[in-house]
Q: What sequence folds into this?
């Protein structure tokens, strides 16, 4: 599919990285940037593709976030690269469609083309309703996926609400055919959540992790993120003091370094195939603090990506240690695998062979050593139980 018509080139004159300074190569010097309308890059030759989306027509109380992509680029391309060979292309910005649905179609088509060619898109929005378009790309690929959202709320909206940045999840859940296996929220704040929404998340066997619990042991976020195909990051989940560039920013949230750690976990995940950063509003970011932070988050994602261990999916059982744990009054043993390469853990959900084909990417659940300890104490880990209920 020819997706070049969906994009407009980047204005390099607005980027401060142009040229090398005293022999110091910046990230912007190493990224192939679509800057000439007559020369659209062959994205299939790259590992990562940066895609800007300037549409914010469905933003709630945060109009102006559509200006974020170029704002972030100025900081991102001024950073120094890590110690690895990179193959990154910047495809420019998706043209704003006549209607928002036109923008969704363009983004969905572009993401599907990237993922189908083993290129991982890094989306810089724009408003978070663009996550819906990102999700639609997997429908065309026929792939059942897991979504992880870093957000202060679930973005369910009302049942009859139109698709917006604060109701896109309802549109994903209700979309038919449905390709969503699991949704996990990281960092919700209880006072922003209706109790009925919490009950709905529980009834759907979705995973929700309150901000305070997550911050107590941030390393437990790693297996949550490792289970994602798509990660969507709302900048408003970062506290105002670290990221003021959002009309909906609040006093509480993640610290900047915690946000960077989460995105590095995402980069390290062999399973993750797309990521989006949304709701940064330059109007509220006059000193560029938030844009600089998002640029650093993307840098950490890239760093994680180029340090992937490629220990999932399993290729050789000899590369893993296998542990079997029996639980009283539970007929199934819980089988754990530990990678000898990275010390990362997985749990196996018992499934008939014919179902393993359909759920080949879901019956091995990322977990931590803590889950193994819980099982050894004769208790069933929550992560195992939630997926087991979905599959049974």
A:
């Amino acid at each position: 599919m020819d997706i070049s018509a969906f994009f407009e080139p980047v204005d390099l004159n607005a980027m401060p990285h142009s040229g090398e300074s005293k022999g110091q190569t910046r990230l912007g010097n190493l990224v192939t940037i679509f800057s000439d309308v007559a020369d659209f890059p062959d994205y299939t030759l790259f590992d990562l593709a940066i895609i800007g989306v300037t549409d914010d027509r469905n933003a709630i109380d945060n109009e102006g976030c559509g200006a974020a992509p170029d704002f972030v680029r100025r900081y991102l391309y001024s950073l120094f690269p890590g110690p690895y060979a990179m193959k990154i292309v910047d495809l420019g910005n998706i043209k704003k469609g006549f209607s928002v649905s036109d923008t969704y179609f363009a983004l969905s088509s572009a993401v599907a083309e990237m993922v189908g060619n083993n290129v991982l898109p890094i989306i810089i929005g724009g408003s978070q309703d663009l996550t819906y378009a990102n999700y639609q790309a997997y429908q065309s690929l026929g792939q059942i996926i897991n979504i992880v959202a870093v957000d202060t709320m679930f973005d369910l909206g009302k049942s009859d609400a139109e698709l917006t940045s604060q109701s896109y999840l309802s549109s994903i859940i209700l979309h038919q055919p449905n390709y969503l296996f699991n949704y996990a929220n990281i960092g919700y704040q209880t006072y922003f959540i209706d109790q009925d929404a919490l009950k709905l998340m529980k009834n759907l066997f979705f995973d929700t992790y309150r901000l305070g619990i997550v911050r107590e042991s941030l390393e437990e976020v790693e297996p949550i993120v490792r289970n994602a195909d798509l990660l969507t990051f709302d900048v408003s989940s970062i506290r105002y003091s670290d990221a003021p560039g959002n009309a909906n920013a609040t006093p509480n949230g993640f610290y900047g370094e915690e946000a960077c750690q989460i995105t590095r976990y995402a980069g390290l995940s062999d399973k993750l195939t797309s990521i989006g950063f949304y709701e940064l509003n330059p109007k509220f970011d006059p000193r560029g603090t938030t844009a600089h932070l998002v640029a650093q988050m993307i840098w950490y994602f890239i760093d994680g990506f180029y340090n992937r261990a490629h220990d999932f999916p399993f290729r050789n059982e000899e590369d893993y240690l296998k542990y079997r744990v029996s639980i009283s009054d539970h007929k199934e043993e819980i089988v754990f695998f530990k990678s000898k390469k990275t010390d990362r853990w997985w749990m196996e959900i018992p499934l008939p062979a014919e179902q393993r084909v359909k759920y080949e990417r879901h019956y091995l659940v990322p977990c931590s050593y803590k889950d193994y300890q819980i099982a050894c104490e004769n208790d069933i880990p929550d992560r195992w139980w939630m997926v087991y209920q979905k599959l049974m």
